[in-house]
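debug: dumping io for the single-chain case to check the tokenizer round-trip. Nothing else runs in this session.
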Amino acid sequence: MNIHVEIGDFRQAETDAVVIYVFEDSDIHNELLRTADAALGGRIQAVLDLGDFKAKLKNISVLYTNGAIASPRILLVGLGSFDELTVEKVRQAVGHTACHVRDMGLKTVAFHVPTEAQDEWIQAAAEASLLSLYQFKVHKTESGDDDEDKTLESLTFLVESGFGKSAVERAVARGQAIANGTTLARDLSNQPGNHLTPTRLAEKAQEVAEATGLTCDVFDKATLEEKGFRTLLAVAQGSVEEPRFVILDYTPEGEGQDTVVLVGKGITFDTGGISIKPSSKMGDMKHDMSGAAAVIGAMQAIGQLKPNVRVIGIIATTENMPSGTAIKPGDVVTSYGGKTIEILNTDAEGRLILADALGWTAQYNPNGVVDLATLTGAVITCLGHVAAGAMGTNSDLMEKVKAAAEKTHERVWEFPLWDDYDEGIKSKVADVQNIGDGTAGTIAGGAFLKKFAEGYPWVHLDIAGTAWGMKGSTYIPEGATGWGVRLLVQLVEDW
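debug: decoded output
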């Protein structure tokens, strides 16, 4: 869908529908309603008087203009109370509106931008309109009888005068960049494992780098062996697909900027290895690279938005397969940083590849490191599909992450990472074991990673419950959510 910003009167807008957002306390902000009502000969007031439309959040009423204005339809959309309006409510309302007009079969729509609209509302509207219309149909060759190919082609933000138009354009452009990064993450996560191998994921990162001016280094299997990425190679040894390690680098002009590192788990398919998973819903394990997808999507947006902070994206990617060459429970491997790991469960593989990634990250002397990983099913037991579990070693960085999470509504909840939990991952034969004692599974994963995230501020986000399967949001689809892209971009821009 194309988004435009134009100066104009909604009464002259030649579009399939004009959308007017209405507050329950609309007597406070009623100039636009009075203008629209006058143009329609009092029909809006009649609808309100009859009670056929109440401006509760996401309520929609369609009025046919019968030639009274250029557009054949006006849509009244409720925003609830003005005093209770939040950025997330704007996202929900706009996402609902975009889906509604698409499902009506409309091709073009115009949103009237009220003078009191804040930049963050405009950005949220642009994000939600694009994200709500997302569909993954790459592998469909035919549609069902009731599956019409309805597409909303164009959305126009109408401003009343040139004053403020540039601000609206900037907000829309920022929303588009972030939404496009989120869409990229969704596309990557939704791809089946036979279409998105570690090699292909690395190639996609290279394509993003070329398009946005980032630098990109990719380590192949031979390079990983030479440099000593033994835990990544250990997980990969059961698959015929070679692993990859990707470094995306955005460095702004000038000197003295802080460095933030974003690390993503990239298991392109996870069978569990020798500790094989049940067959039920194993197909969802194509999403086990959602952390890597979020990092690539965020780096694309960062390359376009160009914040004044150095950002490095790190992706460790491989398959986790059972075979005659796969790692076995009881094996001991040595990580990039030299720590030894006893592998008691080959299905706790994400933390193994992150051990190498976090060890490698130390060389950048980062001011903050955030890793994203679909690490544990236990986090879903704790938080459902509403929030990611957060753990870390630095309270200032954690507060930055929490603030970005609240702004974007990609919510996190902090779990304790006390030293007490270290007891559960002590090994009798190695420095550490890759599973805990059977309790506090999500925290055990964080306690393991903490051993390798040394020498820098670090926060771990367990996104197993938010990477897919979220419900109740108008702009988040059933499959991959692209969760984390908006949070990471907000974190970097607020740095």
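debug: round-trip ok. The chain has 14 helices and 17 strands.
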